[in-house]
Amino acid sequence: MRWLCALLLVWLALPVLAQQPSALARIDAARSSLVAEGRDRGKPRPMELRLVLDQPVPYRVYFLDGPPRLVADFREIDFSGADAAALSGRELVPALRWGRFRPGWSRLVMELPGPYALRAAVQGPAQGGGAAVALRIEPVGQDEFAPRDNALSALWDLPAPAAVAPVPRRIAERVLRVAIDPGHGGHDPGAQVGAIYEAAVMLGFARELTEVLSRAGFEVVATRSDDSFVPLERRMTLARAGKADLFISLHADALPAGEAAGLSIYTWNPQADDRATRDLAMRHDRSDLVAGLDLAGTDDQIADVLMDLARTETQPRSEAFAKFAVSELNRAGIVMHRRPVRGAAFSVLKSPDIPSVLIELGFLTDAGDRANLFDPEWRSRTAQAIARAVGLWAQDDAARAALSRK
């Protein structure tokens, strides 16, 4: 019994290990298959998609419509050299494709002959070694088909548009809610310099900032309150669930000596192309990248258009907060980067419905920044300045909302 328990613990640990970049799973296409049950009478039949891998991986499954299709996201499978068209049973469905669509994520999209429902999704040991993911689906009526509502909600875990009541553009009648997001955490410690870990330093500052904001009369929504790992998409979902009016992510990264020093504030800009910013984006997103929707077709294009439309309101509000923050930090005597407000394609800034900024409080690789981060007086002045900026931004935001309503 002890031997069986030990084997089970090792097996349960494998999906976690599979998330590491060095543990890239590979598909055994020759042992994988798509099988339909019963005789072919020209109607959709129950099917089972079986993928044999050399190791288990985390995955998720959902359906999309127009046309009906099953989407399976894996983290991560190396599909290179495996032809989806050659999969045994491929002829049972209109189309099947797979591949790597973003760093850290692979995707399989299977077009279906009609509406289906997922009846079982199991990952277990495969005969002959490795792991097998078995997805059993059965045909259902259109009224039982449950696809993701649209590209935007599938990508960002937003509620379906039809289920959302109209809300005012600004929240002026209640206490302002600020989502505070200490970067990294858990198995992702962030930047490291000696025994100093970015995740721990940011958690400490987040607690101090939370106390200052609370004393100033604001409500705080924390994306993490301990040394735990929270996926990037989950951080935005938590902010959204907490009805946050502003999202502030806190970081103190590391870059080669001399490349960066001083506090800086980032807003969303996918066109940012300077090398230091690209390096930071890779660091921030290295452990968890937000998934998209499809390998090909129009879904991602639709999502981009919808999100760009949403950002026509939230992006100027994000930039407005950044300006208030720079002004108050300057007044507090906080030394900032020579370009204090910058753009970057950080995943936590992608939320189209919440004004969002990422504050690099400094860089652990810079001796002066490092000293500031451990100076209680500097941390206090910085937290107070950010809190004042939140208050000034909230007043300005409400005033602009009142003018727009007129």
Automatic annotation (TrEMBL):
SUPFAM superfamilies: Zn-dependent exopeptidases. Keywords: Hydrolase, Signal. Gene3D superfamilies: 2.60.40.3500, Zn-dependent exopeptidases (3.40.630.40). This is N-acetylmuramoyl-L-alanine amidase. It holds the Pfam family Amidase_3. The keyword Glycosyltransferase does not apply. One of its GO terms (molecular function) is N-acetylmuramoyl-L-alanine amidase activity. It catalyses: Hydrolyzes the link between N-acetylmuramoyl residues and L-amino acid residues in certain cell-wall glycopeptides. One of its GO terms (cellular component) is outer membrane-bounded periplasmic space. Residues 236-391 form the MurNAc-LAA domain. Its EC number is 3.5.1.28. Residues 1-18 form the signal peptide. It comes from the Bacteria. InterPro entries: MurNAc-LAA_cat (IPR002508), N-acetylmuramoyl_amidase_3 (IPR050695). It is an enzyme of class 3 (hydrolase). GO terms for biological process: peptidoglycan catabolic process. SMART domains: Ami_3 (SM00646).
